[in-house]
Amino acid sequence: MTVLRTSMRNFFAHKGRMALSAVAVLLSVAFVCGTLVFTDTMNTTFDKLFAATASDVTVSAKSASDTGATTADNGKPPVMPASVLDRVRKARGVKSAEGSVFSSAVTVVDADKDSLSPSSGAPTIVGSWNANDARTMKITEGAAPKGSDQVMVDEDTADKHHLRLGDEVGVITAVGTHTAKVSGVAAFQVTNPGAAIFYLDTATAQKTLVGEPDVYTNVNVTAASGVSDAQLKKSVAAEIGAGFKVQTAEEAADANREDVGSFLDVMKYAMLGFAGVAFLVGIFLIINTFSMLVAQRTREIGLMRAIGSSRKQVNRSVLAEALLLGVVGSVLGVGAGVGVAVGLMKLMSLTGMNLSTDDLTVAWTTPVVGMVLGVVVTVLAAYLPARRAGKVSPMAALRDAGAPADAKAGAVRAVVGLLLTGAGGAGLYLASAADKAAEGSLWLGLGVVLSLIGFVVIGPLLAGFVVRVLGAIVLRAFGPVGRMAERNALRNPRRTGATGAALMIGLALVACLSVVGSSMVASATEELDKSVGTDFIIQSNNGNGQRVTPQAVQAVKSTPGLARVTEYKVTEADFTTPDGKTLDGTAITAADPTYASDLRVETVAGNLADAYRPDSMSVHEKFAKDHKVELGSRIAVAFRDGSTARLTVRAITSSDGVIDQGAMYTSVATLKKYVPADKLPLDALVFATAKDGQQDSAYTALKAALHDYPQYVVRDQTDYKQELKDQIGQLLNLIYGLLALAIIVAVLGVVNTLALSVVERTREIGLMRAIGLSRRQLRRMIRMESVVIALFGALLGLGLGMGWGATAQRLLALQGLDVLEIPWPTIIGVFVGSAFVGLFAALVPAFRAGRMNVLNAIATE
Amino acid sequence: MTSAVTIPRHGGTGGRTAVAARARQVVKAYGAGETRVVALDHVDVDIARGQFTAIMGPSGSGKSTLMHCLAGLDTVSSGQIYLDETEITGLKDKKLTQLRRDRIGFIFQAFNLLPTLNAIENITLPMDIAGRKPDQAWLSQVVETVGLADRLKHRPTQLSGGQQQRVAVARALAARPEIIFGDEPTGNLDSRAGAEVLGFLRRSVDDLGQTIVMVTHDPVAAAYADRVLYLADGRIVDEMFKPTAETVLDRMKDFDARGRTS
């Protein structure tokens, strides 16, 4: 009991000093809980949506996917003849059934040809207005579409794009462009996370989306009372026979959930990963806090020991304080987590994803996970300092207590640290030398972990060296104040090491990812320069992979100034290789023979141009090796939606390279021979090459030609590279944003160390002020100490991260990431930024030191 | 009530005036109302230049407070304090800091040195802070005088208590301040080491013309001074010139007896 009482008193006596550690625990726990609440809420939202939108039983074409994502290779949704509807109606247990048509392979534009699609990557759906939709949507303005010139739009989209009744909207599909005027606006009765939805009447939808009357993509079936969905499914399936996909509401919802769920899971685990990094950084902060508290309390602990406390009791009293800290931090963290989740939801709404706080879902596991994690991590982190406290001898009570003696980094630490770092380095070396990706990744992971731990362990030793060097470069200019700042940073290398290491972790990840990211861009750029022989690429400008329609291809082909235009299609086929194996659903690329000059792919055998001869194809090296295919081998290729061809392998391409990696080529002409014209896949990409010297004018002309096709974008090589760079840059920015959490915790650590150091050095500060150090000089001294610690962490982190990044690049070179590019502006930016972070961290401690009363300071024992 | 003490204004060595520091009607009070405690009660004092002055008195008599006020470490409630001709009462922190840095030297009872700096760095610290170059000849003379020539590169933890205080004395002397204040500079030392330090202080007054004010409760230490001021209840109650340990002790016994009977 006494132990607990002492701990409680100590805890509350030092609540200021505990505050920063508590904030670190709070932030980490809040991020974990926030992530959990946020993803749970998203799940709830989608669950509600799927449950609300699915009819009791849905019938769709056999080739439709489970989730109802409906694009076929020919750019149209797979459909069923209208006769299916009549047959469904005859089935037992059917109360009602209706046919509907919808497609997400669409682009919808306003009168100015600006896209109305969501920017968040959520789908754009155009469909027929049916009773099933009327269940979940309420018309808030105007009326449902009637006739070919009317379209109804969902309320969110109407609001976002300021669409009013009577405004013109263009629906662009593989069939063509259909123009209609807004007849009504309908609002979802559940939360719609962000899809843009447009409704036409059934006949118009059929004509616009499929191009033929009397077809449906779905038949929505409602069960008669007393008939379960499963029973209904059975009787419908029996009535219409095989050749259709029949799903109950639950099955459809499950399929949708699985589809969204995998995305949500990736997001959840990625965010939890970053929360983990923040926790790791928080551990350093907690260790430092308790180490300093124990050091400051050495005399008190010595007294406790002298009057009979056992080591265990002292040890336990420190752990009890940690427990208290963990509990306080975690409880606040769990609460803040809900706030974080709401914040994330608001953030998502900026990107166009609507989530309602009505759906806020806090599972009972969330607070439990947060609490357990926060408390366990805090107590574990405090374990080492607690043990050190237990080792304080009773003699400490009698010794003169000035500032705690300078801690020396031990020889054991040096040996262990060097061994770990060495092992880490060896792991990284093996990773860079590995010739198998799987094996290399293992070494890389091992190398990263070991080198990180190694750096943390030898951090205090490195601190001595690095701080001296930094001091010589940066601080000497500031005379005695700089010198004292340097000495102060050096006086407890373990503390400086741990504080710097906390910053190191976040910055190492930043450096590593920036190296990998810029190497990706550089490698891709180099490969583009090396192998691409065409000037322009035309492709869908949003993520839905909308194919290029024949009309658009025609528009490209009739553009003046072009030397050649290459069509590029991708389809799937079942391969039967000479070794007798059948490979279902293998991707095959069909291109015009000019593609051989548009993209120079290295061959290991044969001539790629020959692959475009009739009934010929190419395979890539790895495929050839795996399936014992040689030049002249014949592969039976059963095209989807077509017949089976026997194609002769006339070229084997290298498996390296980033562009079109692992593609197997045949000619469009060959494809046409085996796939009927109406099932022929549309072009995934179109390449155009200008006549010599007409690149600029051709680019302008192409852009003009595609003006009527806002669903496509044309890019020349420069723009394409820029786009690539922007995409990777965006991804990196997102990751940096998430790493900011870990860096914030590390900055708190620097603040904490400085604040406690200032308290610890009260007497010294008093002495210096007495003999004439001005407040400004004092503040500057503390700021510089902070800057040096921050720069130390940055230097270690950036060095380590660049090492990891370079190793990862060597490893990824196996996959064509040939060029190592160190993004010096980023690296230098981070380094300089760290100095500012140091200045910022020192603001409050320096201010408080300056405020210190000189007399009290010298009087402090 | 103020006991006007007659202060002899004899000339010091090389000063602009005979008086290095003055206090006029200085009051220092803490708290207000019933809890008001008066530490200094209308004190008038002149510190003669080139002299070694000791301030004595029982605990709580206000001797440390007086020194802190004279040295610009503490503020007064009312009254004026002059360092030479500069009035320091009412100066802002910045000016006070500069004043302490450039014109005053300090020797505290303990914890005089920065543990991160070695002996010579500690000695030159006030000048370093001010951005001034130390006078090398003077510095060597000071170092020589305090007998630290072979210990200059040592850190404070590598020095004995006496050596540490000698470094503190050297630091106070090195910048040639107008006045050095010592707050029981030998309080933590054994008698031999204490005698050494006091010897240096005495010699710096005799040989170098330094002005020193020292707070002590040790009659032996006070005997090194030219003049002893006695404080009781925040007032200067007596003074003695050319003291010896015996006379100081007798005078203190006298006060004690008076204190008990009054």
UniProtKB/TrEMBL annotation, chain A:
GO cellular component term, pick one: plasma membrane
InterPro entries per record: ABC3_permease_C (IPR003838), MacB_PCD (IPR025857), Macrolide_Exporter_MacB (IPR050250)
Membrane topology: Multi-pass membrane protein
Molecular function per GO: transmembrane transporter activity
Pfam families with a match to the protein in the record: FtsX, MacB_PCD
Domain MacB-like periplasmic core: 19-237, 499-698
Subcellular location: Cell membrane
Domain ABC3 transporter permease C-terminal: 274-394, 738-853
Keyword Electron transport: no
Stated family: Belongs to the ABC-4 integral membrane protein family.
Protein name (Swiss-Prot/TrEMBL): Membrane protein
Organism: Streptomyces humidus
Origin organism lineage: Bacteria, Bacillati, Actinomycetota, Actinomycetes, Kitasatosporales
Automatic annotation (TrEMBL), chain B:
Pfam (any one): ABC_tran
Any one GO cellular component localisation term in the record: membrane protein complex
PROSITE patterns xref list: ABC_TRANSPORTER_1, ABC_TRANSPORTER_2
Matches recorded under SMART domains: AAA (SM00382)
InterPro entries: AAA+_ATPase, ABC_transporter-like_ATP-bd, ABC_transporter-like_CS, ABC_transpr_LolD-like, MacB-like_ATP-bd, P-loop_NTPase
Domain ABC transporter: 21-258
Keywords: ATP-binding, Nucleotide-binding, Transport
Gene Ontology terms, MF aspect: ATP binding; ATP hydrolysis activity; transmembrane transporter activity
The protein's name in its UniProt record: ABC transporter ATP-binding protein
Organism in which the protein naturally occurs: Streptomyces humidus
